[in-house]
Amino acid sequence: MTEATTSTRGTPERRGAGIEFSGIHHGFFHGRDFVRAVWDFSLSIAPGEILSVVGPSGCGKTTLLGMVSGLLAPRRGTVTVDGASVTRPRPDIAYMQARDALMPWRSVRQNVELGLLVRGVKGEARAAKADEWLERVELSAFADSRITQLSQGMRQRVAIARTLAQEPRCILMDEPFAALDAQTRALQQQEFLRLWSDQGATVIFVTHDLSEAILLGDRVLLMSSRPGTVVADVPIDIERPRPTEVQFENEAFLDYRAELTAMLKVQVDRARAEGVVR
Amino acid sequence: MTSTIDAVGTPVDPGDFEDEARAELAAGRRRSTVLAWTAGLAALVAFLGGWWLLWKTELVNPLFISNPVAVAQAFWAIVTDSSSWSDIGATFLASVLALVVGAVLGVLTGILFAASPAVRKGLNPYLAIINGIPRPALAPIFILWFGLGATPKVIVGASLVYFVLLLNTLAGMTGINDDIVTLSRSLGMTRRQYFRLVQLPGSLPSIVAGLRLGAVYAVLGVVVSEIVASYSGLGQLLVQYTNQLDIASSLAVVALMSLMAVLLDSVVRLLQLRVDRED
């Protein structure tokens, strides 16, 4: 099933990248204590796959994203994207955070252009690409507006446009919709899925929200807290497109959620008992 | 125009409804403008009136406080006297120079410190000590070194401006939002790109705010240095008048100094408005 769907995603020349974690061990200092953030972690993600990652706070989800994006190097083990080891940030790997990180000193269009600008794409081509993406997120009318004039939902759409305008082969999302209200979040999820299906990038989607994880993911990875290891790796066999209602009506969806909720609860309780989560 | 029926059954005209809301908003604005002008005028009248009364009733020795009319006349006499314009010019020129020199050096040091936390840490104690010196205390020494011309007063003014701009630039550059920093790194920005696309525009509002403060400090430093000793300048003029017990003229000179600082500040404010608009 996963094979069948992923192979049809994106155009042949614009396919997602395969990601491979092998033997990752990583830790950092939390005050004076050394914390084992991720321990003996290995995983491979197929090109064009959406992998949702859930787990209690402090399970190393963000650490994993940092490793793929090249922002931080694992102490042991390797991360490869399309077989090449990641050593520094690459323009074809996009990172999207919970807050939109829009620059208030740049106009809406200039924010969307940012990734292209950094990569050295020249003025005309850059503006054309940005306008094309603004049209796709239905914000053309606001191209020259200041960021401060936008609503929260609009800002997040600008962030999506900025991320996808980079034409990444891999998108790392760290709770990108966590800061939005429920209505806006449901809209943004669908918007993202619609835009993503044209591009077919590989996605690692970190979230606290199980429903969101199942709705978006081809696979849901459940992690334990410190040290972060894989507890369960559940393929989600629900047909796409998956509209918002799937969460309430689809039997399979509800089963997945019940199963994962039970497993997550065990992890959260364990984390709380160990004092990782307050 | 379409009419809708409200809960009680009276038709409500949407046009009238909107006009009414608009009229209320306009009335509210008018009221607050009138209030602001009234408050401003009342304060001015109270100040001038109180001053005049103190002088008239001789509650305070009239020789020491002069009166509003005499000060206004003295002010007019000074600005129409061509010889005083060389003093005004000297102070103004020195203030502008102090602002420019202090600001350029301050911003450059701020950029250097923002780029290298190690350098910042290493030099911080010295800067704290130098910044702790009451700069006017250095004026006599600078005058001894550089003579009675423009140099010592520009240095005193610039040394005040320098630290304001250094601290504001540093605060602006190191205070970039964490999410924007992470985004910039994940995009693989070079150091130069990060400086040009993020740090500089991100700290511009803070730098311009520093310049506005600096405009006032520049005039302060220059005038204090002139008061200590100088060939020309408003500070010297003030000393002369005060020595002659000419309080009206002294106060007129003080007013001139203030106007100068306000003028410099307004020029910077224009810059600020431009920066804000570009945001």
Rounded mean pLDDT of chain A is: 85
In terms of DSSP E residues, the strand content of chain A is 15-25%
Could you name the ranges of chain B where pLDDT drops below 50 across 5 or more consecutive residues?
none
Largest sheet of chain A: 6 strands, mixed
Termini Cα gap of chain A: 39 Å
Strand order of the largest sheet of chain B: 1-2
Largest sheet: number of strands, sense, barrel closure of chain B: 2 strands, antiparallel
The largest interface is:
A-B, 25 and 18 residues
- Please identify, by name, the CATH architecture of the largest domain in chain B: Orthogonal Bundle
Helix fraction of chain A, binned, reads 25-40%
Number of strands of chain B: 2
The gross shape of chain A turns out to be globular
Counting structural domains of chain A, the number is 2
Which structural category do the helix and sheet elements of chain B fall into?
Answer: mainly alpha
What this model shows, in words?
- The complex is a heterodimer of chains A (278) and B (279).
- By secondary structure, chain A is an alpha/beta fold.
- Chain A folds into 2 domains: 2-8 and 16-92 and 170-273, Rossmann fold (3-Layer(aba) Sandwich), CATH 3.40.50; 104-167, no CATH class.
- Chain A is 38% helix and 23% strand.
- Chain A has helices at 2-7, 61-69, 108-119, 123-136, 152-165, 182-199, 210-216, 246-249, 251-273; strands at residues 19-30, 33-45, 50-54, 76-81, 84-85, 93-96, 170-174, 202-206, 219-223, 230-235.
- In chain A, the strands form 2 sheets. A 6-stranded mixed beta sheet of chain A has the order 6-7-8-3-9-10, with helices on both faces.
- In chain A, strand 7, helix 6 (182-199) and strand 8 form a beta-alpha-beta unit.
- In chain A, helix 3 (108-119) runs parallel beside helix 5 (152-165).
- Chain B is flat, with a radius of gyration of 27 Å.
- Chain B is 83% helix and 1% strand.
- Chain B has helices at residues 14-56, 62-65, 68-80, 82-115, 117-132, 139-146, 150-174, 178-186, 191-228, 234-243, 247-278, and strands at residues 4-5, 11-12.
- In chain B, helix 4 (82-115) runs parallel beside helix 7, helix 4 (82-115) runs antiparallel to helix 9 (191-228) and helix 9 (191-228) runs parallel beside helix 10 (234-243).
- By secondary structure, chain B is mainly α.
- Chains A and B meet through strand 6 and helix 3 of A and helix 8 and helix 9 of B.
